[in-house]
Amino acid sequence: MTKIRIGVIGAGLIGRKHLRKLAEHGDYELAGIADVNAEQVAAEQPGARVFADYRKLLDEARPEAVIIASPNQLHAENGIACARAGIHILIEKPVTDSLETAAGLIAEVRKAGIRSLVGHHRRHHTQAKALKALLGEGRIGDVVGVSAIWATHKPADYFKAAPWRSQAGGGPILINLIHEIDFLRFAVGEIVAVEAIAANRQRGFAVEDTAAALLEFENGALGTFFLSDCAVTPWTMEQGLGEAPEFPFSGQSSYRLMGRRGTIEFPSLDQWTQEGGAQDWNKPIQAQANHAASIDPYVVQLDHFRDVVRGVTPSLQPVEDGARSLLVTLAIAEAATARRRVDLRERYAALGQGE
């Protein structure tokens, strides 16, 4: 079968990761790369066509599909240009930097009829798919609640390398929590209301270093999420899955999903139930291991995008769905500042009208 000619917009940290995976993937042919640091990228990517202007990549290299890995504030502009050129897109998360730009992107994607995939790569882990299947089978009954943690200690160099990370918008809510929110929406269901508090006492930056959120799901489940980038713990999704070299593997579960008939930990998938399906606090609780092989989610994501581009399968996460994860995360940031409950139902409807 003919290879898919693909371009990459943005050759930063995540863009370079995509380029490495594409080089090893037999179903893609790199049409070109667009990055403002074109000379540096050309030196790093010998043999590749490199453009300083992404529009020249679209016009001259004429790719069938593009991976958008540019800075967040450029996602909508890049995606709209691809849509108008009839080019399918895999757009990195967050889908855009605001709900307004997300609505504009959604409208153009729908008008052009192109196929889209948002790069929330954790949906592609076999453990995530196994969890969704186990919940769907009713292994723990109706989900009652979720308890989750993402807590690690970012080093001082992290902030020195990019001073904006110590300013508003650079904290763990908007940088890190969006991954977790998307995972919860995928595994448990839509989130319809949030509350939150945040603190910056540890570093004293203008942005939070610790936050706690309350989540209400459409199916009636409730959730708590503790988030910090100044606490030493083994409880992050990255450490539990071993998906990133920057996070040494711990194998520890940072999620507990609790139901009427039992509990499942994630990502270990350890299941806790009572013998015979009993629901009685006087009965002992037994553990059962569930296994799912570890894979490279970025490779599986490329496999899925290939099938989406070819029309073989519907997108696991089109831009409309990615915008919902952005909506929830922005609402948590708002709730932490205002210290009030934020109902999301009207906001989902407004986002839908913008489509």
Automatic annotation (TrEMBL):
What SUPFAM superfamilies does the annotation carry? Glyceraldehyde-3-phosphate dehydrogenase-like, C-terminal domain, NAD(P)-binding Rossmann-fold domains
Residue ranges occupied by any GFO/IDH/MocA-like oxidoreductase domain in the UniProt entry: 130-265
Where does the Gfo/Idh/MocA-like oxidoreductase N-terminal domain lie?
A: 4-120
User: Which Pfam families does the record cross-reference, listed alphabetically?
Assistant: GFO_IDH_MocA, GFO_IDH_MocA_C3
Q: Which InterPro entries match?
A: Gfo/Idh/MocA-like_OxRdtase_N, Gfo/Idh/MocA_Oxidoreductases, GFO_IDH_MocA-like_dom, NAD(P)-bd_dom_sf
PANTHER family of this UniProt entry? BILIVERDIN REDUCTASE A, BLR3664 PROTEIN
Q: What name goes with this protein? A: Dehydrogenase
Q: Which organism is it from?
A: Bradyrhizobium japonicum
